[in-house]
Amino acid sequence: MKNFLYALTQYYQNICSALKHGDGIAALALRCYLVPIFWMAGTNKLMHFQDTVEWFGNSDWGLGLPFPHIMAALATSTELAGAVLLTLGLLTRWISIPLIITMLVAIFTVHLPNGWQAIADPNAPFANAQVLASAEKLEAARGILENYGNYDWLTSSGSFVILNNGIEFAVTYLIMLLALIVLGGGRYFSLDYWIKRKFSK
User: Which N-terminal residues, if any, form the signal peptide (predicted)?
Assistant: First the structure.
């Protein structure tokens, strides 16, 4: 029995030793997932920068943040730089920190009042009053479209939904960035790895 456990332990250690060469794949997957998200967010802010500034600063229909020009510039540059650096796997841990801050700001200033769900689904476990109320509105919209529109054509690209804009996606990105702080850029698939390897020699 002792010999069997020893052999099993050795077998397990051999598997772990072989798998460690692929441990950078998880970090690469996280980076590849986040890159287009931050690139689109950053370029959208840049292309409509004045609108972004007004939205950041206006307390009536916007976020009511102080120093809106500075805040908009920081958010835009962080997202664009984040997309580039995550693509290269360069300074992965460092750029994850300001990106986490942007996610926290988005969560607490934009999404939190809407609850958890990004897409309103009254059957989901975290459905709040706003989401529950969306069911009747969505059904009414479907009825109008079925009676007065080409419903089959309108839904050929997917079902109609109501955007709830909750914290779901922002929290997901936040968790992924926290994982990158731990993982770094990843073995073999990042400049971080090769720079560290060069200087460690």
Answer: none
